[in-house]
C-alpha cells in the first residue's frame, strides 16, 4: 500500500531526497510511493530533471534557482516548486532512481545556447541504470556518460553518449529518440539496442535487439545510412588520419582509408548486452582485449610484463565474479601469474605453469 501523503508532502520528501537531507524512513516511504504507479514515477523523474536544471554545486541560491527555473521549458507545473526550491539549503544529488536506487555522478552545466545540460556518469567499476522523463530506460556501463538537455522530451528526445549503454526506448512516434555517438546519429522509436562508443576505441558498435533503428553517418568522411533489423550488428570504425604535404607544401591531416562499416547478423545478442545484468560473455577475445574490459569493469590498471601473453585467447561466461576470481579462471588455460597492488594488476608469464602446460600438450599427442 502506498503512503497516504498529500501532494505537498510528497514534494517535500522529493526535495529532501534530492538535497540529500532525507531520513531513511522517509526515503523508504518515497520509494514506495514512486513504485506505486507510473504517474508517480513520471512525476518524480520530471521534478528530478527540473531540480538538475536549476541547481548548482556548492552554495545553494534559491533566488537564482527560481530565476533559472523560469527560463526553461519545464516538463511539469512549477508553481508549487517555488516554495520547495526555497526550502533547499544545499545541492547534493547522490542518487538516480530507475528500477532501484543506484550510484552515479551527476553534473550540470550550460550548453552553447545557454540551456542546462544534465550529465550522468557511471564511474569505472560500476554500472548505472536511469530512467528518463519520457519513460526510456538506460543502462550505462562502467566508465560511460550520458548527456541531455534539461528540456529533454519537451520538443525532442536527443542524448549524447560516450562509452557504452543499453537503451530500452519508450515508444513515441511524434518524437524519435536520437543517440549521438562519435560522429554518428542513431535514431529509434520504440526499440531496444546497445551502443558501444568509448572514445579510445575510435568507433561505434551498434547491436539491435528488437524494433528498428537507423544509423545516420552523413557527417563521416564517407557518408552512409543504414536501417537495422533485429539481431543485426554494425561496427563503424572512424578512419585513421595521417599527416601529409598538400599542394602548398604545408602539412595536412587526411583520411587514411575509406570509412569501414561492417554489418552482420548475430543469433545471440546477449553477447553484447549481458553486461547490464552483471555478466560478461567472452567469445574468442585476446587477453589484451580482456584487459581493457577488466580496467573498466573493476576500475584498475592492467600492466603486461610479457607481451606474448596478450595474444592468448579465451571464451566463456563470467557471472558476478570478482577480479581475483576472473584472473584465477584465466590461469586455468594460460601460463600467467598476477599481482594486484594499489589499483594495478601486473600480469607476467608463469614459467613453471608454461612448462606444465607444454608437457601436458606433448603427452596428449
Mean pLDDT: 78
Unreliable stretches covering 5 or more consecutive residues:
56-60, 72-78, 87-105, 248-256
Distance separating the two termini: 68 Å
CATH architecture of the largest domain: Sandwich
CATH topology of the largest domain: Jelly Rolls
Structural class: alpha+beta
Strand content: 35-45%
Give the biggest sheet: 14 strands, mixed
CATH class of the largest domain: Mainly Beta
Outline: globular
Number of discrete helical segments: 9
Tally the structural domains.
3
Rg value: 24 Å
How many beta-strand segments?
Answer: 23
Helix content range: 25-40%
In short:
The protein is an alpha+beta fold and 365 residues long.
Describe it for me?
There is one protein chain. By secondary structure, the protein is of the alpha+beta class. It contains nine helices and 23 strands. The protein has helices at residues 7-18, 24-35, 38-54, 62-71, 81-87, 270-273, 287-298, 323-331, 351-363, and strands at 95-97, 101-103, 105-110, 116-122, 128-131, 137-140, 144-149, 157-168, 177-181, 184-188, 192-197, 203-210, 213-216, 225-228, 232-237, 241-245, 251-255, 261-265, 279-286, 301-304, 313-319, 336-341, 344-349. Strands 3, 4, 5, 6, 7, 8, 9, 10, 11, 12, 13, 14, 15 and 18 form a 14-stranded mixed beta sheet that branches. The N and C termini lie far apart (68 Å).
Amino acid at each position: 500500500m502506498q503512503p497516504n501523503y498529500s501532494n505537498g508532502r510528497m514534494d517535500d520528501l522529493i526535495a529532501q531526497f534530492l538535497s540529500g537531507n532525507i531520513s531513511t524512513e522517509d526515503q523508504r516511504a518515497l520509494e514506495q510511493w514512486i513504485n506505486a504507479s507510473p504517474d508517480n514515477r513520471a512525476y518524480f523523474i520530471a521534478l528530478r530533471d527540473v531540480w538538475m536544471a536549476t541547481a548548482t554545486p556548492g552554495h545553494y541560491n534559491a533566488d537564482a534557482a527560481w530565476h533559472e527555473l523560469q527560463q526553461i521549458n519545464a516538463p511539469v507545473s512549477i508553481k508549487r516548486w517555488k516554495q520547495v526550491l526555497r526550502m533547499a539549503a544545499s545541492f547534493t544529488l547522490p542518487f538516480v532512481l530507475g528500477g532501484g536506487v543506484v550510484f552515479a555522478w551527476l553534473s550540470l552545466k550550460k550548453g552553447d545556447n545557454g540551456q542546462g545540460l544534465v550529465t550522468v556518469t557511471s564511474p569505472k567499476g560500476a554500472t548505472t541504470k536511469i530512467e528518463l522523463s519520457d519513460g526510456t530506460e538506460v543502462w550505462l556501463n562502467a566508465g560511460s556518460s550520458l548527456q541531455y538537455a534539461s528540456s529533454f522530451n519537451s520538443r525532442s528526445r536527443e542524448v549524447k553518449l560516450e562509452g557504452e549503454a543499453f537503451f530500452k526506448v519508450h515508444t513515441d512516434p511524434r518524437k524519435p529518440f536520437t543517440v549521438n555517438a562519435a560522429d554518428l546519429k542513431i535514431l529509434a522509436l520504440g526499440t531496444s539496442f546497445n551502443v558501444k562508443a568509448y572514445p579510445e576505441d575510435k568507433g561505434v558498435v551498434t547491436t539491435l535487439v528488437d524494433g528498428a533503428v537507423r544509423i545516420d553517418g552523413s557527417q563521416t568522411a564517407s557518408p552512409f545510412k543504414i536501417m537495422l533489423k533485429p539481431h543485426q550488428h554494425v561496427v563503424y570504425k572512424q578512419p585513421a588520419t595521417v599527416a601529409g604535404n598538400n599542394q602548398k607544401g604545408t602539412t595536412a591531416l587526411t583520411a587514411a582509408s575509406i570509412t569501414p562499416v561492417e554489418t552482420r547478423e548475430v543469433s545471440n545478442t546477449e553477447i553484447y548486452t549481458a553486461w547490464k545484468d552483471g555478466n560478461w560473455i567472452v567469445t574468442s577475445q585476446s587477453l589484451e582485449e580482456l584487459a581493457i574490459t577488466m580496467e573498466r569493469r573493476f576500475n584498475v590498471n592492467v600492466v603486461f610484463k610479457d607481451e606474448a601473453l596478450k595474444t592468448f585467447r579465451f571464451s566463456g561466461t563470467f557471472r558476478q565474479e570478482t577480479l581475483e576470481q576472473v584472473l584465477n579462471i584465466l590461469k586455468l588455460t594460460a601460463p600467467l601469474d598476477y599481482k594486484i597492488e594499489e589499483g594495478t594488476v601486473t600480469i607476467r608469464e608463469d614459467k613453471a605453469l608454461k612448462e606444465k602446460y607444454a608437457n601436458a600438450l606433448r603427452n596428449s599427442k
